[in-house]
Amino acid sequence: MIVSPVVFEEIIAGKEEGEPGYGLFLQTDDPVATQDQLDSMDDTASMSIHNSFLSRQADENMMKILSIFVYGFITLITLISIANIFNTISTSIALRKREFAMLKSVGMTPKSFNKMIYFESIFYGLKSTLYGLPISIAIMYYIYYTNQNTFSYAFELPWVNIVIVVFAVFMIVGAAMLYSMSKVKKENIIDALKQENI
């Protein structure tokens, strides 16, 4: 509210002694230049200048830095997990070369062999999601429960992200199985049967 000096004196006349407080809000196209002009004024000792634009910019920069660290960490953990899945499945398939050779030697067709591998991939994916989903939902609820006193929001499951993750798990397991089986298919049945262990 902007008033004349006379009206201002009338407003504060009935108040207690002391320095009257007042504020001025400015909206400008160039907030940095406006703050520089205000800082260059002679009477800045009694003024407190708060630049909302610079505060928001500092908050956005902090969020960018945190996002880089958080998403970098998530990417690193994801790549380590994928490498671990490939390594575990490849080792499991390599240790079963003799078993596969024996099944082929007693008449298992390539179609039946591929069907068996597809079912194993599905079971690997189902087992990992059946263990992983309840644990992750429990962790999400725990994070929500610990933040209830700080933030007020309803607990909701991110269904789209859950579906994407389940699909990604099956894709990674399937890719690992196909990679491992491409090595096994090149093996000679007789040589594989002769091997006692890897």
UniProtKB/TrEMBL annotation:
Compartmental location: Cell membrane
Transmembrane stretches, start-end: 68-95, 116-145, 157-179
UniProt keyword annotation of Transmembrane helix present: yes
Alphabetically ordered keywords of this record: Cell membrane, Membrane, Transmembrane, Transmembrane helix
GO MF entries: transmembrane transporter activity
Name of one Pfam family that matches: FtsX
Domain (ABC3 transporter permease C-terminal) ranges: 73-189
Topological type in the membrane: Multi-pass membrane protein
GO cellular component: plasma membrane
Annotated family: Belongs to the ABC-4 integral membrane protein family.
Protein name: ABC3 transporter permease C-terminal domain-containing protein
Organism, scientific name: Alkalihalobacillus alcalophilus ATCC 27647 = CGMCC 1.3604
Source taxonomy: Bacteria, Bacillati, Bacillota, Bacilli, Bacillales
